[in-house]
Amino acid sequence: MPHSDELLWGALGDISRLAALLTMAELGVADHLADGPLGTAELARRCAADAGALRRVLRELAAMDLVRPAGTDAYDLAPRGTALRSDVPDSVRSSIRMLGEESFWYAMGLLPATVREGSSAFVKRYGHLYDRLGADPALSRMFDDYMKRRSLPFTEGLAKAYVFPPEATLVDVAGGKGHILASILHTNPQMRGVLLDLGHVTAHAERTFAEEGLADRTEVVAGDFFTGVPAGADVYLLASVLHNWDDDDAVTILGNIRRAMSPDGRVLVLEVVLPDDAAPHLGKDIDLRMLAIFNGGAERTREEYAALLGRAGLALSEVVDLGSGASLIEALPA
Asked: What positions does the domain O-methyltransferase C-terminal occupy (predicted)?
């Protein structure tokens, strides 16, 4: 166990390392080094950056084993740094750029003010995240790519760990571009899918289903889950939705689904479920981001999800560990 001072000073150093990582992602350093080493001056030219400033960041990145010195004042991409290339399947570049985007960085820096006041400094300055995304197409594209890559391990775990009822109709509530629904439908060729999301998102989902050869098995509906959801389906999926909202709003969403679902239907909630102990957990890190960015958004424990479901007329039946920190909560009509 490290000495407490090492933990504290290490956390302070993480701020600088995160800033260096963000700079590498934002400037596309890994993409520029993909074909081999470059001198710092040439790399700076390709990145449209100041050579002197970039040299100092590269020194930190080399200490993180993301790049490696390659002769005098030149650097090559280290194997660990490959994950920051845009063209690799497991790329984390968009995730780093999204979490380091100006408003997100602001939100985490103002976390003390959020905690003092009990309301998000992010919301006070920028408004609700999804309104901001709707007004900024470039930011929305970056966020969508982040969410797609973030959901990949969860989606793979969902397809392997959960048995869907055959020939069921599944409604993906706030399903975004439709990548999770597409994955489920590919794994379950007898199922049909309906995706519900806001109007500015639905065209993206239609393109996804067309590209995936699923247009004849899907329907895309523009709507607001606070108003209602498509009725009569067998399965309703909420993937990374409820953690954006406070308890009352979450119960409203769940209540609308409860009223719309078939008598023998089920609700699937894909979220990070917090443990009850004090051990480190991915959900505890994400929970602070939710605190910083949303008014009332939170990660929750199993018991807290059970309470929300109960308020909406649903009963938690099981929790399936999907790996990568995520869980699938199944709920049935109470």
From this structure: 111-314
Evaluate if pTM is beyond 0.85: yes
Q: Are residues 84 and 158 in the same domain?
A: no
Domain that holds residue 9: 4-88
- Residues designated catalytic: 243
Rounded Cα–Cα distance for residues 127 and 131 (Å): 7
Listing DSSP states for 16-35 in one string gives HHHHHHHHHHHHTHHHHTTT
38 shares a domain with 175: no
The encoded tokens of residue 316 equal: 């938690």
Number of domains in the chain: 2
Task: Please name the helix (run of DSSP H) or strand (run of DSSP E) that holds residue 80, with its range, or none.
Answer: none
- CB hemisphere CA count around 80 (13 angstroms): 10
CA gyration radius for the chain?
A: 22
* CATH number of residue 54's parent domain: 1.10.10.10
Same domain, 191 and 312: yes
Whether 65 and 206 share a structural domain:
no
* Boundary residue ending a domain (42, 73, 88): 88
pLDDT (tens, 9 = 90+) of the chain, 334 residues, equals: 455 688 888 888 999 999 999 999 999 999 999 999 999 999 999 999 999 999 999 999 999 999 999 999 999 999 999 999 999 988 999 989 998 999 999 999 999 999 999 999 999 999 999 889 888 988 988 888 888 777 777 777 787 789 999 899 999 999 999 999 999 999 999 999 999 999 988 998 999 999 999 999 999 999 999 999 999 999 999 999 999 999 999 999 999 999 999 999 999 999 999 999 999 899 999 999 999 999 999 999 999 999 999 999 999 999 999 987 899 999 999 9
